[in-house]
Amino acid sequence: MATNFVEELKWRGMLHDAMPGTEEHLMSGLQSAYVGIDPTADSLHIGHLVGVMMLRHFQLAGHKPYALIGGATGMIGDPSGKSAERNLLDEATLRHNQASIKEQLSRFLDFDSASDNGAVLVNNYDWMKKFSFLDFIRDIGKHITVNYMMAKDSVKKRLSAEAKEGMSFTEFTYQLVQGYDFLHLYREYNCTLQMGGSDQWGNITTGTELLRRIGNGKGYALTCPLITKADGTKFGKTEGGNIWLDADRTSPYRFYQYWLNTSDEDAEKYIKIFTFLSKQEIEELVEEHKQAPHLRALQKRLAEEITVMVHSKEDLENAQKASNILFGKSTSDDLKKLNEQTFLDVFDGVPQAEISKSELADGLDMIGALADKTGFLGSNSEARRELKQNSISVNKEKVKADFLITESDLINDKFVLLQRGKKNYFVLVVS
């Protein structure tokens, strides 16, 4: 075995709890483990990444990882950590989501390996769809008491007096369905370990109980802490919603910026969890950061590593160039290389005005562009004064009062960037 998997998780701050004997079991030879992934979207978001990183470390330690797409459980919804029931999906949507998720997982896990520990993707819908309701309650349900199920924290929370909504029978049975997944994987693939977030402990141990009672086997459970942020806000979310791994949902620029903007305390924690840098490399980075926190060495390295891992080196370089547009020296050419989504992300919140393309036919004069047509500046006289002081730029290049904006100045055939001084931006949207 290449490394001690449990030890690796411990120093990275990725171990919350493990059933007694788990470490010894893993050190005894090649073992198989799985993590369940919710397929309610056709992309993973960064909240999924801890589980994915655990599977990757598991494979690097010489073990065999299984990524389980919860097609069946995605049809009913997991009550853990939820205050209300979720929307349910049809099979066609689930299959599409599964294919998209596998593509993303293949950036982390080796599915093509001919070795014994190649990663495998499974979908619990494939075995659950064959079960009739009567078969399930007879063959599985009778082995677990309601008292046992009611004692789980995820159930207690939803049935407590503070809960706004109750819990449907469908959701109540979730832990049985998840438990059966573990039993099925144990029988079919000799999978002996289930991993997940700490809120999954109750569901995972229901699975180990089914292995004991029905499979006459020994199963193990291991959980990681739920990722938090030092300021108490939710990890992986911004005002715009989730940070997705799919570039169409969250641009690589916005993805890069999310990690770049983490606090010092969070960056020190996240660089252990979300990169594969060695302990020595991380300790050196932490020390370097402490010597000169203003240089943000930790945040920069974290953002670089994870952007390349999820997207590509080219996407990272483009994100860095886009970041320099606001804060560094850049040219009209740099602006024109941005795709539309990245342009909008970079200038998110910058005031805008819309003009028609016909107004550029003979060239739009600068007074009109700055004041008359847009209201960027308060008056024509203020526009003239700023132009005289050489403080106006179009697409990052200084212009005089006689400059005319034409179609050749359009970025993405749609935008013109006006600027007064260093920090005052305004976007012309040409339709």
Question: What are the main properties of this structure?
Answer:
about 425 residues; alpha/beta; 5-stranded mixed sheet; 15 strands
What's this model, at a glance?
This protein has 431 residues and is of the alpha/beta class.
Describe what you observe in this structure:
There is one protein chain. The model has no long low-confidence stretch (mean pLDDT 90). The chain is 43% helix and 14% strand. A hairpin with a 2-residue loop joins strand 11 and strand 12. With 431 residues, it is of the alpha/beta class. The chain is built from 20 helices and 15 strands. The strands form 4 sheets. The protein has a 6-stranded mixed sheet, with helices on both faces.
Layout of helices and strands:
Layout lengths: L4 H7 L5 E2 L3 H6 L4 E6 L11 H12 L3 E6 L21 H15 L14 E4 L1 H4 L4 H7 L6 H5 L2 H7 L9 H4 L1 H16 L1 E7 L3 H13 L6 E5 L12 E2 L2 E2 L9 H9 L3 H10 L5 H13 L5 H14 L2 H15 L4 H5 L3 H7 L5 E4 L8 E2 H7 L7 H9 L3 E3 L2 E2 L5 E2 L9 E6 L3 E7 L1
Parallel strand pairs: 2-3, 2-5, 3-4, 5-6, 9-15
Antiparallel strand pairs: 1-6, 7-8, 10-13, 11-12, 11-14, 14-15
Helix pairs in contact: 10-11, 12-15, 12-16, 13-15, 15-16, 19-20
How much beta, percentage-wise?
5-15%
Low-confidence stretches: none
Spatial arrangement of strands, main beta sheet: 1-6-5-2-3-4
Radius of gyration: 27 Å
- Taking the alpha carbons of the first and last residues, their distance comes to 61 Å
Overall morphology = elongated
Largest sheet descriptor: 6 strands, mixed
Quick one: how many beta strands?
15
Q: Mean pLDDT, nearest integer?
A: 90
Number of helices: 20
Percent of residues in helices comes to: 40-55%
Structural class: alpha/beta
